[in-house]
Amino acid sequence: MKNKILTTISTIMLFIPWTILPLRTFHWALESPIAEIIISCYATCMIFSGIFTIVSYAKAKVQNNLMKINVVVNSLYAVFGTCAFILMTITRFS
Which of 7, 11, 35, 43 is such that its CA lies 20 to 30 A from the CA of 65? Predict the structure, then answer.
């Protein structure tokens, strides 16, 4: 039961970053500082989902095929989320 719950949560987290696409169609979502806040929230969610999935896979031993896909994709999300934070920090201080 625990394995199914953790796999379901990790699978749902795969689709959350894609919800930024329809959100960014609104004019107010493209203006500063709202845009930075939205990107920061999504980057935080992406980093959390990567960490959560890796911990679920390694520590909780949830190692089914779907979870293997979740680990790869959510790990990439975590890397891209970290890059987004770094780029936002660099551009803010330059």
Answer: 43
